[in-house]
Amino acid sequence: MSMSRFSLSFLRRAPNLQFFKTQQRIRLANIVTKRLYSAEIAPNARACGLDLLITNLTQESSLEGAEINTVTSVDGLKKICSKLESPINGEISVKVLVRFAELANESFGIQKAAVYLKKTLLAEMDKSLKSEKLNMNSTLETMCALIILELTQESIFETLIDILRQQFSTDVFSVPVSPLVRLAALVSIKKIRLPDDLFCQMREWLQLKASEITEPKDIVSVIAYWNKSDSWFNIFVEKAKSCISSMSSSELIDMMSSLANSSCRPPHVLRLICDAFEQNKKDVTIDQLVLLAQSAAKLRFMDNRFRRIIAEETLTNISRFTKWSQINAIVHSMAKLHIGNLKTWNAIAAWINNNQMNAAQTELSYAVHWCAIGGKGDLIQEASGYLCEKLACSNIDSPKMWLSTVYALAACDRLSPELAQTVLQPSFVANVLEGLSGFRKLMALITIAQVQHFLKSILNKTYKGPSVDILDLMQISSTTLSDMALKLRYGKSDEGNVRYFHSLLHKLVPVNSHAFPPALTEDGIFINAIIKLDVKGNRFVPLSHFEETKVPRLAVIYLSWRDRTLPYDDDDKSTLMGPALLNMRLLKARGFIPVLFSQDDFDSNASLKQQFIRIKTKLEEALNDNGIR
């Protein structure tokens, strides 16, 4: 390293040096020349001059490492690297690569960092690593960094593979657990192909050391990314389970977060985490609560105990929420987890209404959207009204975000006619649909169609402007459209239930003779059947006599579990989610009487006759509730 790399702290300690200006930089080469080679040797320098030089060279290296470890941006790290003198030693090379990986990953600047390294430092670092002896921990950390930085095709990665292979053959008992587990996980995630012999060595070592893998993040990595068919995997999982009960709440939350980030949801592990967290949930910070809720939502972990904890902790700590990012994360998670607890939602809504003036438009839009999806738009009338006013004088930066916000305002019943019309303009529709196809395109069109229906049936019944035709824009047959809509509406989990319901209903009310078949309406609402029931005549009205028979049309709607909040205890009540609530209102605006069915209406032990009676009874009750007898 060049002598110009000495720190000012060393210069201040050097005797017989005078500074003419406090900020003057003195080149170390001159000092070394004077102190070590000049005839005028400073007092006490004869005995300690070389020792002091060696000490300060070591301190300077440590300072470089500390500076690298504490820099907070990729650009800041580049500036530090620009001052490094050649040759860059192995220790500094490891620190630089690891820190570049950390910072680039955090700032989504991996490509930028990789290009810089390839142009400047990588070749020199490769030479240093070949000539210096690394410990195994440094080797593993550097390989992980190169995988993150997408530099595995560079020669430096091959160098590290050779080093690791050698270390496995000589230092197998000193292999560090966590770095190797992390490398194995990254190799799996990024689909990196290591040499077969090295991969087998890693696999055998992990199998040998399974009982020593106890860190939460390491447990998650093995569960998420290792081959589940390996004979030792279940043995490892059993051993891992015993660690969960002794984890702190912070460790449990970190483990949940790691599982969520890897999209791994082993039911047995999640249940154990829930058991442990229920017993040890003391002193959870707001950020930890947010992370817990986000992780549960991402994993779709609908355990009643977890959902109750999230609702209760949010209610208890609502006064400690200080950021819109925190409240929005909770609102999103509450909606995704179908938590309907009214006390908690009231507290959240009060926070949103009280802080609306301090929110950026995107923050308020996000909050309103997820409150609306959760079926709690009626609680944020003040905030949604304020948002509507702000949007009236705003430009459309993101068509998709604009559409979701307009839809949310309709669900909150705070949409203005002017805003509704913006999503029906041909240019807007084209922008929203750009790049979409299949179910994603249909979903966007359903959203636009429902806003259109809200405008025409509720806001402005004389509207004559541009309009959207789902069938025309999808360019498929009506039968194919309805089949797609059914799959989109219910998904795989509920498709079997709804088809069974259709078979029951159609036996009682024959389709195409007394009932219109399941279909997506032009208003973007999927209706399972449209029928007329003549209560006085005790008969279903044939379609051929629909027009002249003056009884209301019944819109039969089969509810998916996604359409309702899910109670987590006996005191909690199920309510409709926002999209279902909006659909009911739109159907009523068209003159329909919605009749809601769900799986709860049909006992699996009930006879066929009892199930038919249940359908008929609910249809009659719907008419009675609307004064039709």
Automatic annotation (TrEMBL):
Domain of life: Eukaryota
Protein name: RAP domain-containing protein
